[in-house]
Structure to design on (228 residues):
């Protein structure tokens, strides 16, 4: 069955450092992969989408990579700030780009200390 | 303002008492979905709908029903709630066509079944 693993349940880093979060998937080939941010008790908020033919995508201090050979995506936050503290979820899209059973990883809780 | 609205936000009920959680979106999205979120299990998809009158099971559909009679609304029905349905529920709708899928989430509905 399809499986998504976000390698760390929690990640603690110092303000100003780069946070790197990992998302691995098995038993399917997503046409795209998304990253979301979720604050406690709130709904997830979309951050970035990267397609299978893109190696890297950037948005301000965020960078996402997508390696379809390794079946892995890396999510980087550079110059991290305490306000970046949240849980980050990855969600590989359905094969062929169609919507449908969109599933999420369990998330990595990031804490940025001042 | 583009939004997904869920009601109620908080509900305490008793086993067996039918309830409906409403979800409405004002973005004219065709795709809508329901998730539940539990500690240690992450977001799990209950049902989704690709369009009006088209619904499909997600990963955890048991004990739930949905309907999609009009594009903007996608209610979640618990015919006979049980304590294992105590959870935080999120409704979401999807922008764009195939392969562009940014999900917009509601604020969540915290349900407790006694």
């Amino acid at each position: 069955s399809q499986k998504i693993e976000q390698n760390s349940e929690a990640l603690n880093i110092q303000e100003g450092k780069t946070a790197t979060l990992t998302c691995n998937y098995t038993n399917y080939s997503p046409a795209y992969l998304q990253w979301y941010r979720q604050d406690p008790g709130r709904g997830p908020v979309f951050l970035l989408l990267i397609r299978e033919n893109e190696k890297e995508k950037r948005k301000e201090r965020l960078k996402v990579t997508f390696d379809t050979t390794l079946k892995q995506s890396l999510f980087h936050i550079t110059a991290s700030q305490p306000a970046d503290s949240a849980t980050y979820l990855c969600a590989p899209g359905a094969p062929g780009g169609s919507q449908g059973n969109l599933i999420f990883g369990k998330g990595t809780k990031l804490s940025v200390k001042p | 303002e583009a939004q997904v609205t869920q009601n109620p936000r908080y509900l305490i009920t008793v086993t067996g008492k039918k309830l409906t959680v409403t979800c409405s979106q004002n973005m004219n999205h065709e795709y809508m979905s329901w998730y539940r979120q539990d500690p240690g299990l992450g977001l799990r998809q209950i049902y989704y709908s690709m369009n009006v009158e088209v619904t499909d099971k997600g990963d955890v559909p048991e004990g739930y029903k949905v309907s999609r009679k009009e594009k903007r609304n996608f209610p979640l029905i618990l015919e006979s709630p049980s304590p294992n349905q105590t959870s935080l529920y999120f409704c979401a709708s999807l922008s764009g066509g195939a392969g562009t899928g940014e999900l917009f989430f509601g604020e969540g509905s915290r349900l407790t079944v006694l």
The first strand of chain B starts at residue 4 and ends at 7. The two ends of chain B are 36 Å apart (CA to CA).
